[in-house]
């Protein structure tokens, strides 16, 4: 039998707090329909002061370690654009919180929202070299934009952990991949800034060009006919972007269908992103979780993926859902994760938005707020101190 490689298990975590777009609209005077229908967002996850990309990443991965054990994992690839350190990989903190063996490598990857897909492809190459090993891929981000900016409505926070290996239980990843890179400035965050700079309209145009470019390369390398795919999972800085991307792909490829049919191929991927907001590297994989958790039987269905990271790098690839995948889903845990979040009012949201960690290298305790499995307990001599809750 030919060995297959792909995603064996998938679990996500998000933050302790949630701000609804209704609350945002009431305060900013924007007609709420612009958020609900115009950008396709209902709510966004907001991190508590004792949460960061490490606590969310460890919370996402914990159920995977509990189910499969740590022994086959020799690599942790952590993708983020909310890095907490210029040198040390957040993956090392996560490995420590998860109790992974010392005989493990941990690395952090960056290329805006795309790097989770780079991590997935690198993981597939590693397990191809040695099918007895598994790779823990974690995408984790907190999306933050300036108060009062157009991007403010497209914030959010989440982490998705995936166990990648041979003979996967959820999704076989296929070759080829279609690739596209262009040196553009649609979204970036210099080291001295906590909030990103974004030209939203330029980013929409760049995203659509990247759909076209990545699809062209995918086709030239012998990829599937576009009509073979059952569903299309796009990167979702806001869920409406996935629909824009799909309409553009349909135009470029001659894919026929009514507006309703084109929407139906994307809607099942958007349920989680609608209420979590942008989670950068995690966003497309949250889309995959939504698709698997919310669709009728997808056994043997070919799924299309379009991953985009501003700046920009993009990739189009396919995957096939594995028979029996439903026995391995975490749908009720994912629902509970979202329902556990505490709604906050506008004043509290603004206070959390403006809060920054001290930079003086002193000892600082961070009061307990999150009920997540891990928390950022404080700072000491420029080190982050984590603990289990
Ligand atoms: N009811 C329904 N829809 C409405 C509406 C209303 N009352 N008011 C406006 N809209 C629609 C607009 O027609 C538009 O839809 P369209 O794009 O299909 O034409 C949509 O809402 C957004 O309106 P727009 O005026 O373009 O919004 P904006 O200038 O506030 O910007 C973003 C929206 C998404 C560009 C902005 O939030 C942003 O830059 N976010 C960051 C995106 C990002 O992170 N990109 C980088 C990673 S890919």
From TrEMBL:
<dbReference type="InterPro" id="IPR016039">
    <property type="entry name" value="Thiolase-like"/>
</dbReference>
<feature type="domain" description="Hydroxymethylglutaryl-coenzyme A synthase N-terminal">
    <location>
        <begin position="21"/>
        <end position="167"/>
    </location>
</feature>
<protein>
    <submittedName>
        <fullName>Hydroxymethylglutaryl-CoA synthase</fullName>
    </submittedName>
</protein>
<dbReference type="Pfam" id="PF08540">
    <property type="entry name" value="HMG_CoA_synt_C"/>
</dbReference>
<feature type="active site" description="Acyl-thioester intermediate">
    <location>
        <position position="113"/>
    </location>
</feature>
<dbReference type="InterPro" id="IPR013528">
    <property type="entry name" value="HMG_CoA_synth_N"/>
</dbReference>
<feature type="domain" description="Hydroxymethylglutaryl-coenzyme A synthase C-terminal">
    <location>
        <begin position="258"/>
        <end position="322"/>
    </location>
</feature>
<dbReference type="InterPro" id="IPR013746">
    <property type="entry name" value="HMG_CoA_synt_C_dom"/>
</dbReference>
<dbReference type="Pfam" id="PF01154">
    <property type="entry name" value="HMG_CoA_synt_N"/>
</dbReference>
<feature type="active site" description="Proton donor/acceptor">
    <location>
        <position position="81"/>
    </location>
</feature>
<dbReference type="GO" id="GO:0006084">
    <property type="term" value="P:acetyl-CoA metabolic process"/>
</dbReference>
<feature type="binding site">
    <location>
        <position position="278"/>
    </location>
    <ligand>
        <name>(3S)-3-hydroxy-3-methylglutaryl-CoA</name>
    </ligand>
</feature>
<keyword id="KW-0808">Transferase</keyword>
<feature type="domain" description="Hydroxymethylglutaryl-coenzyme A synthase C-terminal">
    <location>
        <begin position="177"/>
        <end position="249"/>
    </location>
</feature>
<feature type="active site" description="Proton donor/acceptor">
    <location>
        <position position="235"/>
    </location>
</feature>
<dbReference type="GO" id="GO:0004421">
    <property type="term" value="F:hydroxymethylglutaryl-CoA synthase activity"/>
</dbReference>
<feature type="binding site">
    <location>
        <position position="244"/>
    </location>
    <ligand>
        <name>(3S)-3-hydroxy-3-methylglutaryl-CoA</name>
    </ligand>
</feature>
<dbReference type="InterPro" id="IPR011554">
    <property type="entry name" value="HMG_CoA_synthase_prok"/>
</dbReference>
<feature type="binding site">
    <location>
        <position position="145"/>
    </location>
    <ligand>
        <name>(3S)-3-hydroxy-3-methylglutaryl-CoA</name>
    </ligand>
</feature>
<comment type="similarity">
    <text>Belongs to the thiolase-like superfamily. HMG-CoA synthase family.</text>
</comment>
